[in-house]
C-alpha cells in the first residue's frame, strides 16, 4: 500500500488527504495492539516522525540506534570504528528483538529503527510477524540534504554520501518493500508525514 505524503495537510495526485481528527486519533490509538516499527533509509525521518507519532498516539517512543548506544555505552561511529559493522549489526538484532518483544499489547510503542536494521533477515521476519511495519521512503535529494545536517553516520564516511545513499537505497528497496505499509515523505513538514502514516495504519488495521 503506498501513500504519498504531501503538503497541507497532504495530497496524492492533487487529492487532499484530510488531517486525522482527534476522535479518529483516539479510536486508532485504542486499536493499536502491537508495536509500530518505522523502517527505511538513514535520514528519511524515522526518528523525527516517530517521536511525533508517539506523542499523537500517547505511546512510548524508542529509537533503536539510541538503545544500541546506551547498551554499548558508546556512540555508533565509535562502535563501527572499534568493532566493525558486523558487531554493530549483532547488537542491533538483539536490541530490536528485545524492543519488539512478543509483539503483544505490552510491547505497544513506536520504534524507529536504524536504516540497515530491516535488511537483516531475522530482524525483518520478527518485525513482519510481530509488529506493524511502516516503510518511510524519500527521494535521493531529500535524503542527501537531511543526512548532511549531522555527522554521525559512519557508512557515509566511506565515499561520496550521495553515491552511497543511492546504492544502499537500491540494494535495500526489495527488503523495505516487504513492510506492510509504504509512506513517501518528500520535502514536507513532519506533521504531513505523520498524518499520512496515521491514516495508512488506520486503513490497514
Ligand atoms: N519531514 C521533514 N522535514 C524536514 N526535515 C526533516 C523531516 N524529517 C526529518 N527531517 C530532518 O532530517 C534529519 C534526519 O532525520 P532523522 O534523524 O529523523 O532520520 P532517520 O530516518 O531517523 O535516520 P537514521 O536511520 O540515520 O537514524 C533530521 O535533521 C530531521 O530533523
Ligand atoms: O543505514 C544504516 O545502515 C545505518 C543507519 C543509522 O540509523 C545507524 O543505524 C547506522 O549508522 C547504520
Ligand atoms: Mg534515526
Automatic annotation (TrEMBL):
Gene Ontology CC entries for this record: cytosol
Q: Name one GO biological process term.
A: aromatic amino acid family biosynthetic process
The enzyme's first-digit EC class, named in words, is transferase
Q: So which cofactors does this thing need?
A: Mg(2+)
Residues where ATP binds: 43-48, 153
- Tell me the keywords, alphabetical order: Amino-acid biosynthesis, Aromatic amino acid biosynthesis, ATP-binding, Cytoplasm, Kinase, Magnesium, Metal-binding, Nucleotide-binding, Transferase
Protein's pathway: Metabolic intermediate biosynthesis; chorismate biosynthesis; chorismate from D-erythrose 4-phosphate and phosphoenolpyruvate: step 5/7
Q: Key word Amino-acid biosynthesis present in the record? A: yes
EC numbers on record: 2.7.1.71
| MF GO annotations | ATP binding; magnesium ion binding; shikimate kinase activity
Query: Where is substrate annotated to bind?
Result: 65, 89, 115, 172
User: Which note does the record give on the cofactor?
Assistant: Binds 1 Mg(2+) ion per subunit.
Q: Name one Pfam family in it.
A: SKI
Task: Tell me which residues bind Mg(2+).
Answer: 47
Matching NCBIfam families: PRK13946.1
The UniProt function text for this chain reads: Catalyzes the specific phosphorylation of the 3-hydroxyl group of shikimic acid using ATP as a cosubstrate.
The entry sums up its family as follows: Belongs to the shikimate kinase family.
Quaternary structure?
Monomer.
Task: Please give the name of this protein.
Answer: Shikimate kinase
Q: What organism, scientifically named, is this protein from?
A: Novosphingobium olei
Gene that this sequence comes from: aroK
Amino acid at each position: 500500500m503506498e501513500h504519498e505524503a504531501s503538503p497541507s495537510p497532504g495530497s496524492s495526485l492533487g487529492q487532499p488527504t484530510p488531517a486525522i481528527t482527534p476522535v479518529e486519533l483516539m479510536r486508532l490509538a485504542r486499536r493499536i495492539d502491537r508495536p509500530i516499527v518505522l523502517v527505511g533509509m538513514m535520514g528519511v525521518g524515522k526518528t523525527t516522525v516517530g517521536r511525533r507519532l508517539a506523542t499523537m498516539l500517547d505511546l512510548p517512543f524508542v529509537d533503536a540506534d539510541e538503545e544500541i548506544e546506551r547498551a554499548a555505552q558508546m556512540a555508533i561511529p565509535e562502535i563501527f570504528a572499534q568493532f566493525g559493522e558486523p558487531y554493530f549489526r549483532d547488537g542491533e538484532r538483539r536490541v530490536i528483538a528485545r524492543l519488539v518483544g512478543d509483539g503483544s499489547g505490552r510491547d505497544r510503542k513506536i520504534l524507529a529503527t536504524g536504516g540497515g536494521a530491516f535488511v537483516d533477515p531475522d530482524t525483518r521476519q520478527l518485525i513482519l510477524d510481530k509488529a506493524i511495519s511502516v516503510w518511510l521512503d524519500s527521494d535521493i535529494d531529500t535524503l542527501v540534504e537531511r543526512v548532511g545536517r549531522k555527522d554521525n553516520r559512519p557508512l557515509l564516511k566511506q565515499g561520496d554520501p550521495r553515491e552511497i545513499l543511492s546504492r544502499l537505497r537500491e540494494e535495500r528497496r526489495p527488503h523495505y518493500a516487504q513492510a506492510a505499509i509504504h509512506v513517501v515523505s518528500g520535502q514536507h513538514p513532519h506533521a504531513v508525514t505523520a498524518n499520512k502514516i496515521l491514516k495508512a495504519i488506520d486503513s490497514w488495521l
